[in-house]
Amino acid sequence: MLCAFEFKNRIVAPEHDDSDSDDDDDTPELRLARRERRAAAAFIEALTHRDVRGALAGHAGYVDATRAVLLDELVQRIPPERFTFELAPDIEVDSELIARLVTLHARRYRFVLDGVTQADETLAKLLPYAEAVKIDLRHISRALLPKFASVLKSAGKLLIALGVDSQADFELARDLGFDRFQGYFFALPHASSTRRPSAPRHALLNLLKLLSADPTVAQLEAELKLNPVLVMHLMRLANSSAFGLGHKVTTLREAINATGTNRIARWTQLLLYADGRKVSLEDDPLLQLAATRARFMELAVGQLPEAGRDVADAAFLVGVFSFVDAVFGGTLESTLDALTMSRTIREAILHRAGPLGRLLTVVEQLERAAWDEVDVVCAELAPFTTSTAAALALAAGEWAGMADHHAEAEGLERIED
Which parts of the sequence belong to the HDOD domain (predicted)? Predict the structure, then answer.
């Protein structure tokens, strides 16, 4: 279950800043300190922005906190109930920083030691002030890991496994008593063993095939009647307050007419990713990632020249089906064949071809905070920019996290396996 997001920040320096101009009394150290203070202030301001809070969608936010951020008085504008500060393993630790941590801790701020791979002096100094320790599975000695984890657990610390990218990583950390896990294992195709296809999902696949053929209401009604679970969800969707019909929908045909094939299609696409376990949609990592990608693609393509409604619909499909093999297993190509996707959508997903393929690359790199790669692709999509992409990613995250409150998705529920 999804329990938190980590924000990956990038400080963009202005092309020219008068305060950095040479001064007879300036030293390189003073200029560096000024730049660090400006970066800290910008970072703190960003965390208080509505879009950032919205993207959390009720979850906790983990953020890298530099020394300059922690020492800045403005840091207290950041709500402690929403954000946890991560302390890097190379942060400078002295009496000033320790005193600041004590002050902030008294004001209910929480700290996590990030990227820990060994027991060193920095860890010893900061451990009393941290509620959790992130241990990087990719770089710690596997021989050292069991003892290290045991000692930290005995000290009453939450253990977070960082870099969980495989089933073996997850099982190792779980068996050692780790409390939380961070990594792409939970939302990418190699996690397919935990999400085996179920009968309801195949019913969803059949429904998607029918929807792609522009069906009549009678055809939709006949297909839906084959699975009472889908009928129940559609009735909930049609009767959600977002539609504002003013009366209760009581028949399946009326529900189809009230909802419309476009909304039914989008609802069906997202339901493909809903886990069979008792996990709410906002806590399901794969569904959240799929919904965020799809919404990002839809918003981003609107920023490109000559993007019409059909292109926006195609963009949403590219995002939502970009890792559908995580649900059905098998190859991505064979799954797309089964879904009868158009050539444009297939080429964008399989080969990153065309503008939709380039936008898919952008959102993939954003997920990894690979800013240099984002810069390169955005330059190819000019006037689309990295700044625009980052802003749209936040908007898409908010939409995905609150999906069951939107008119297009309200009524989404877990499909019982």
Answer: 197-387
Same domain, yes or no: 161 and 227: no
Q: Are both 204 and 263 inside the same structural domain?
A: yes
Distance CA 211, CA 221 (A): 12
Domain that holds residue 117: 4-193
- The pLDDT tens digits of the residues spanning 214-236 come to 899 999 999 888 877 778 778 87
- Does 225 share its domain with 124? no
Looking at the fold, whether 230 and 372 belong to one and the same domain comes out as yes
Q: What is the pLDDT of residues 176-213, one digit of tens each?
A: 999 999 988 876 655 444 455 444 777 888 888 888 78
pLDDT at res. 287: 84
> Could you give the C-alpha distances from 257 to 210, 260, 404, in angstroms and in order?
16, 5, 20
Q: How far is CA 146 from CA 92, 153, 304, in A?
A: 28, 11, 51
Give the chain's domain count: 2
Strand partners, 113: 87, 133
Looking at the fold, whether 172 and 140 belong to one and the same domain comes out as yes
Q: Which residue has the tokens 């100094």?
A: 125
384, 304 contact by CB (below 8 A) = yes
Mean pLDDT of 23-45: 83
**185 vs 286: CA distance, rounded Å:** 10
Q: Residues 293-350: pLDDT tens digits?
A: 999 999 999 998 766 666 878 899 999 989 887 777 778 888 788 777 888 999 999 9
Q: Which residues have C-beta within 8 Å of that of residue 236, sequence separation ≥ 6?
A: 411, 413
What letter represents residue 69's amino acid?
A: V
- Pair 39, 71 in one domain: yes
